[in-house]
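We store chain and fold; example below:
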Amino acid sequence: MKILFCKAAGLFGGIALAVAGLVAAEPAEPNLGDLSIEQLMNESVTSVAKKEQRLFDAAAAISVLSNDELRRSGATTIADALRLIPGMDVGLIDANQWAISARGFQGLYANKLLVLIDGRAVYNPLFGGVFWDVQQVFFEDVDRIEVIRGPGATVWGSNAVNGVINVVSKSARETQGGYVYGAAGDVHQVQSGLRYGGTAGEHGFYRVYADYHSIDDFPTASGGQGGDNWSAWQSGARVDHYPDDATHVTGQADFTRVRLEEGKSSAYNANALGRWTHAMPGGSNLEVTTYFDRSVLDEASRVHAVGDVFDATLQHTLAAGGRQEFIWGVGYRNETTTVRPTNAFIALINDRARAQIFSAFVQDEIKLISDRLRLTVGSKFEHNDFTGWEIQPSVRATFKLSPSQAVWAAVSRAVRTPSDFEHEKLFAVTGAPIFVGPVPYFTTLYGNPAARSENLLAYEAGYRAQVSRHVSVDAALFYNQYRDLLAAQLTGRLFPDTGPFPGTGRAEQLVTNSQSAETYGGEFTITVAPSDRLRLTVSYSRLAIQAHSASVLDAETLERSSPSQQAALRCNYDFTKRTSVDFDVRHVGSVLLVPAYTTADLRLSFRLTDRIEGVLVGRNLLQPHHPEQPPAPGPVLPITEVPRNFYAKLSWRF
């Protein structure tokens, strides 16, 4: 293993040094990112308060992945890029399924994380989580990814419990001209894409794009093939119109198609979004956003599901003098899900679920002591068809110890409303058998119309410091109290002679609010840039979960669902203006049935010209393959492992 790693590193290093020699005559200008450490701390974010503010002033544990950091990460999906964020739990179950969460409760159906792409929520109402393979983006056109660890329900609403991920795309005005790339590798077999941007009249801009990915099978622990290969292609367009200096109109649409396991299953997503913003005199701002999203999942061995979402929001920001800023908004959301079982172990009860959500939020930011102490209070008010009224308030404060140091604290309430399956009697899922005497009774899980929302009361505090021009520190601590967590529970009701096989019965399971938990821990990051060419980032996160359940096994499963600790070291270095290397090593603690592991990634890039760039990437270099996450509940499947892999990429701007 070590010999192979050294050979790969030596090969990459030799190519990089050779290219460096070819371009040694070029001026030795720094190329390490577009932003210095000081500029990164002052970067604008919008996800915490639903308005633009400096990252340094945000009263939340927030991290930002810039376009340059995404490019230099070597990641090919949003899911892989999230590994760069301290406190994020990211694990591959197989080649096409991820388990992603923040601050605990990791799993394929993790449902306490709100994911947004340009303000469009992409969680699936059927089970409350995200189909990560369907959520593809054209990385070159992503401006940044903002990641909040901790609740964001006051402005974003239900399901923003453990965190918020907001993918923000560039305006079409910033993506003029053409860009094409192609890549090939052993596991990431094919990656290719094309984007072109132009003008539409005097004040309009547009872009269109398409890309394609093909991923090979992952190996199993026994050396076989997991049969989990997949491919995805995506296309889309965006138009940005600026009729005057105060107004911005955006329209965009995307279509993604995913094929899993050689056509055994498939999924697609189609969406369209429109946004109008207008800046008014006195610092006020008005924004209207609406979108439609359709997701189709066709799993040959489980279920065919179609989910339609229509969402419309209005937000008004009002500047009340120099010491206060008031934001309010209203929204409407309509969700419809239709299902059809494709497996004898899934029995249809109702084929459709529908929910309407009406919402409003208010938030007031007050500067109490000049610009040193800021207090933000607000609440979200929602009414849904499942659980009625939900109120989610928060209080956040930031205090500047000095111009380069700040502490912040927050107390928040957030809820996760039951998914369609948990609340509605859509279909019953038959699971493992239990024996009542000599007769096997198959557990059968039903949704529960009496299910209540899960509740979180979160306490957070943090510290940020720009120690010098070359060093920054970011730390956060949290304590979370969860109540009314939803879980499957046997009711004791038995139904003889109704099982899937002759002579078997059913044992009823019901989704109930039968669990509670406390989590606590923290994240720490220090970034050091000894020179304009070198940047080092060290991060560490710690998590503890104490679960309470009627079942000791269920409690243990919750407590071991996420790694108790993670650590990472990332190094970015520019040899010259045209050549660079990016290396990171990370350690991830054990989760249920999966031991801890340590691995490393390496990326070498070289610009042949100002418009042509070549990249060599090696991932998971320290072992041939390793498991990251136990398989999802369901049919017994082989445990697949994440393999060491390599790919080469060439891109051209024109």
Notes: The CA atoms of residues 407 and 463 lie 4 Å apart. The longest helix spans residues 2-22.
